[in-house]
Amino acid sequence: MSNESVRGVFDNNALVSAALLAGVPRKAFDKLLDSGTVLVSVPVLLELADVLNRPRFDKFVTLDERMRFMVSFLKVAEMVEIDEAITVCRDPKDNKLLELAVSGNANFLVTGDKDLLVLNPFRRIEIIVPRDFLEKFP
Question: Residues 100, 44: contact at Cβ < 8 Å?
Fold first, then answer.
């Protein structure tokens, strides 16, 4: 698979880490932006907006900076229409990420969530942590 064909979903914990910190999730997110397509859906976006608005993140970056990340994310992400309901995850809130990955023809779902990681692979979609994503696409 060439880098140009890489289509990926980042769960909201990985996205929030990418927005707030300059660590591995940010490097993995930037790598996907540089060499592939990051996917998003309305349900995932609404959850991201809710999480980024939480005051507890003020100690990392300002609300304004978090909203700028959100706007930048919207400009580069491909909006995917969900066309299949999925109910296999032991945490029902995570099903929306599987729906996004399947509906968007993703190659990867990047997450640190054990409820999703145990499903790897899911319909030929690799579910991996950010560090493993970076190792696959150095």
Answer: yes
**DSSP characters for the chain?**
--GGGEEEEE-HHHHHHHHH-SSHHHHHHHHHHHHEEEEE-HHHHHHHHHHHT-GGGGGTS-HHHHHHHHHHHHHHSEE---------SSSGGGHHHHHHHHHTT-SEEE---HHHHTT-SBTTBEEE-HHHHHHH--
**Which residue is it, tokens 């729906």?**
99
Output the pTM of the full model.
Answer: 0.91
Q: Where are the domains of the chain?
A: 3-136
- Decide if domain 3-136 falls under CATH 3.40.50.1010: yes
Determine if the peptide bond prior to 121 is cis (ω within 30°). yes
Q: CA 75, 73, 117, 136 torsion: positive or negative? A: positive
| Tokens standing for residue 134 | 């970076």
Condensed to tens digits (0 to 9), the pLDDT of residues 94-114 reads 999 999 999 999 999 999 999
Residue with the two structure tokens 């992400």: 77
